[in-house]
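Quiz preparation item.
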């Protein structure tokens, strides 16, 4: 009787987890309805791929016992590199799109592409390092500042956000903070927590910088400002807007090389090869596929939604992860998480309805 009751409770928890997950995706779909089917589909698939990639990495380390995250991350970037170049080779433009000269100027390459390539792996490195000195809960709290930091950088660089947009960012940040506090584990903190906070803050800042620089390449017209025109500075809007696959064709190679360099200094490739099994190999390949979809859809979402809204939507994956963990791994969902979910979705809706961003159509390769 007791076993039957526990199974019944488990089934109910799993059903609730699925319902919560479906409700979040339905909310995203409804909020983004004015932008059209393509944007709705890309955004939902982006959140789904983000959840899948994180779950795969979690299973790879905890269940499969293949603990080489830096090497796996390098393979993720390598996969994006290969897919981007195959894409342009299929269109007959590989030599054009993978050439830095396709940006129009070397200044644009050093100003945008290289900083993006450096910030991607460095943000991961700093985040992982921060977890050595602080609990994952506190790291999550600091991570909730990503949307507001991105919004400030976006505004500072010329892409204006309306009053309603700022309210949406603040509401979503409050919601993400509730979620993080609900998951916080103060017992893990120690005297080196300040060092951990420094690394975590740098990670958040680099993620914001990466998102804004990508946004400037994808939507340069959105960053044109009257002050630049008055000073005689060439506005970004006069520069060619790149497609997501063009951006990846340029940023994936240096990003992969930097990630590999970090992996070489922190992990043993020889040990990793010795520990590869059919199971771990299958998990790694699956994670590479999921991460490739995630990175490509992530840039498409940045192009469609803007850097600030993209950071807010990205936080919703935390809610989906918690719901699935509650239903299928027996973890509890604190009431703060439920409150935070409502605030986060409300923030996305306010930001979207506030007209903070201009709709954009997916650019097709010429």
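Solution:
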């Amino acid at each position: 009787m007791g076993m039957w009751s526990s199974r019944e409770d488990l089934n109910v928890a799993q059903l609730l987890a699925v319902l919560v997950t479906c409700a979040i995706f339905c909310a995203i779909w409804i909020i983004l309805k004015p932008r059209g089917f393509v944007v709705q589909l890309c955004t939902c698939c982006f959140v789904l791929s983000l959840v899948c990639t994180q779950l795969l990495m979690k299973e790879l380390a905890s269940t499969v016992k293949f603990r080489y995250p830096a090497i796996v991350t390098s393979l993720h970037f390598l996969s994006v590199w290969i897919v981007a170049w195959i894409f342009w080779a299929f269109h007959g433009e590989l030599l054009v799109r993978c050439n830095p000269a396709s940006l129009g100027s070397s200044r644009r390459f050093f100003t945008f592409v290289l900083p993006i390539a450096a910030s991607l792996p460095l943000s991961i490195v700093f985040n992982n390092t921060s977890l050595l000195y602080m609990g994952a809960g506190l790291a999550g709290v600091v991570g909730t500042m990503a949307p507001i930091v991105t919004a400030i950088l976006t505004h500072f660089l010329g892409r204006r956000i309306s009053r309603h947009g700022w309210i949406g960012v603040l509401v979503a940040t409050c919601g993400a903070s509730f979620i993080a506090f609900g998951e916080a584990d103060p017992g893990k903190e120690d005297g080196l927590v300040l060092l951990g906070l420094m690394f975590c803050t740098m990670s958040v800042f680099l993620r914001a910088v990466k998102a804004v620089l990508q946004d400037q390449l994808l939507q340069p017209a959105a960053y044109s400002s009257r002050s630049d025109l008055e000073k005689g500075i060439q506005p970004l809007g006069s520069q060619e807007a790149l497609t997501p696959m063009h951006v990846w064709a340029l940023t994936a190679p240096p990003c992969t090389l930097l990630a590999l360099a970090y992996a070489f200094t922190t992990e043993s490739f020889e040990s990793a090869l010795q520990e590869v099994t059919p199971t771990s190999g299958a998990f790694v390949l699956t994670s590479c596929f999921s991460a490739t979809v995630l990175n490509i859809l992530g840039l498409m979402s940045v192009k469609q939604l803007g850097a600030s809204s993209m950071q807010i939507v990205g936080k919703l994956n935390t809610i989906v992860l918690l719901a699935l963990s509650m239903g299928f791994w027996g973890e509890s969902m604190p009431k703060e998480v439920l409150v935070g979910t409502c605030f986060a979705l409300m923030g996305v809706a306010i930001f979207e309805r506030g007209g903070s961003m201009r709709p954009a159509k997916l650019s097709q390769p010429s």
